[in-house]
Amino acid sequence: MNIEIINIGDELLLGQVVNTNATFMSKELINYGFNVSHIVAIADDKKEIEDALLLSLKRSDGVIITGGLGPTKDDITKETLARVLNIPLVEDVETLQMVRDYFNKRGLPLTDTNRQQALLPKDCIVIKNNYGTAAGMCISTSEKKLIISLPGVPFEMKAMFPEVISLLKTHYKTGIILQKTLLIAGIGESFLSDMIADFEDNLPQEIKLAYLPNAGTIRLRLTAKGNDEQELKDTFESNLALLLEKVKDYFIGFEQNISAILFKHFTDNNQTLATAESCTGGNIAHLITLNTGASSIYKGGIVAYSNEVKERVLNVKTNTLKHFGAVSEQVVIEMVQGVCKLLHTDYAIATTGIAGPTGGSEEKPVGTIWIAVCDKAGNTKTKKCFIPTTRDNFIERASNEAILLLLSFLHYKL
Amino acid sequence: MNIEIINIGDELLLGQVVNTNATFMSKELINYGFNVSHIVAIADDKKEIEDALLLSLKRSDGVIITGGLGPTKDDITKETLARVLNIPLVEDVETLQMVRDYFNKRGLPLTDTNRQQALLPKDCIVIKNNYGTAAGMCISTSEKKLIISLPGVPFEMKAMFPEVISLLKTHYKTGIILQKTLLIAGIGESFLSDMIADFEDNLPQEIKLAYLPNAGTIRLRLTAKGNDEQELKDTFESNLALLLEKVKDYFIGFEQNISAILFKHFTDNNQTLATAESCTGGNIAHLITLNTGASSIYKGGIVAYSNEVKERVLNVKTNTLKHFGAVSEQVVIEMVQGVCKLLHTDYAIATTGIAGPTGGSEEKPVGTIWIAVCDKAGNTKTKKCFIPTTRDNFIERASNEAILLLLSFLHYKL
Q1: What is the pTM (predicted TM-score) of this model?
Q2: Residue range of the domain that includes A102
Q3: Does the CB of A228 have a partner CB in chain B at under 8 Å?
Q4: Among A262, A314, A352, B255, which is least packed, fewest CB within 10 Å?
Q5: Closest approach of chain A CAs to the CA of B138, in angstroms?
Q6: CATH number of the domain that residue B227 is part of
């Protein structure tokens, strides 16, 4: 069952907004056995919307549209849909009441502009929006293809998506999809590919393997599609076992990212963690605390951006800073041991480096970073990396390197 | 000049990777006067690549493709391009040398798989990849449309993009684009729209206005496209002045996001900042340190995830925690004042709340957050918000609310 996603919004084509809506929707659709065939971003333009809609109805089994449902003049999706499908817009009583309530609650008047939010294609299924004034709508075409239109505000769209899935599941009969992602570290993509070439060559047609390299790690995704659940499961499991055997020296877990693997390790072992970050500026803390339940393993951290904080909060010695400079093995060791002691945790991570684009020197160019991990007994492991890239990419990759160093420290000791 | 972007990769359709490549490319293209007409994400599939390529050549003036150039079996872009355009693949001597050097430097052998990376369409313009083994290529069709193919790894693609721009600029004659984005806070989208309805109605055809709401703020983007630079500039400037006058009560700056506005304010005023984060888990620190030169204004912060850290590092009183609970106005006040004193800064921000999905109670449900800001004299401002959403969205919006509170605190005093 091929679903096409159309994201409407000039902001997507102007590079002002990252299309996270498409990512969220795809992930959800796949989980429920739908295939996403195309993701298309187009402008707030009548002709473009019309063309994209007609093309999607030709090549796909259904289409989900986001964006262009707001109250402002650049929001033209609803009118365009109604015109293309030749359905009049009528005021929906229940939606009008929701819009009225929305403004009432906020002590604001119901303006004419806002009242128009209750105009919806006649006889469509209304998808309620509990967080905004733009209702979603679901229309079935004469060829029994569903067209679903949702607001583009991620938070509102996400809250409405369970109903979208339920509408799709009622309307279409879906196949079965099995999927597993293996996180791999410590080997380059081409060498991994050579290592498992035999395995890939012998994969049955219903199973696909994909490589997703990301900042020092590779996600290997095995996907199976079919109709007979038991048969598919058997084939999938046996191939998964084969793959796991092949990559066992580099396999670090089934989670989607290394922060989730780290979180799981700490949770399983009932251990606690602290961070001391200079150049990664709180991003390691952020990655760890994105995990639900992080408070059970993560006590906290120090973002030690200035030397003053390194000294006063983390007890890095003035002499060490003076002698070796802030970006040095000596300083990162004092940082990691300092935070581990300060926050009374079982383990700690620390980083210090030059994210750039300014601040580099000949001896320590932009992209230089020292990372360290330690346990409460004082056992410490350090690593120097050189990541000459953009500031945001440096922060991302440096954070990953630090988490990987802790994982290798833990595995070494396991 | 309409350029179409085609991003190839199963991972995009499976929702495993956010398409940040398209955002980066669009932003760059717009800056150089190109219009991005479509962004299309498709699977690593011969037929899909072929269809997308042919469609884009029909409706656009040029196409940039990312992905599918790696050494593994799921990388089929190059072969598909060569077949569709009927051009043979030949070994490129210079690329082969670069691939060889790449592995030499790493002490790794040049395998057959990697050697294939040097096979490129005959007579194409090679775009060097200094960070990986997949070269880019640029082909001009018989209709003088450019097809540019780049690797999908963001870091590699970005480094190659200046040459892409230079190739495009040599090949096409572009129009002029002027653009300005106004960051607006403190007013809802529909009320803003009503407020500037006259302005919008009277906009000349060459100027467009777009609304981009994001977590408590709205970006208003004014774009002008034309050919006569001076004429376009005059029209654009006069309309921009009109718009600024209309929204002056809610206008907070021209930067792309509030963290950049905060950073600019602190830099301009030579002031320093500290953060104390519980539920936002380091994300505010991360947002601030994404700004180049952050170290001149940001001394550091405490991620006080556990009560123990709140007490021992930030000097929050045990009694306050016991009496009011960690998520309370009293605690957030002690946190913000604690960190401001500890790190000797001019200002500080603090957050404490329940990101969820677990940890809520009837009295303090998931989504509850207290934020506070203060200056070194002890003047403090607090705010309670309720943001019932997903964990990652909560963190994003709560961080924005905290930065907005500090901005309002600063404006109040200016």
Answers
A1: 0.75
A2: 2-171
A3: no
A4: B255
A5: 22
A6: 3.30.70.2860
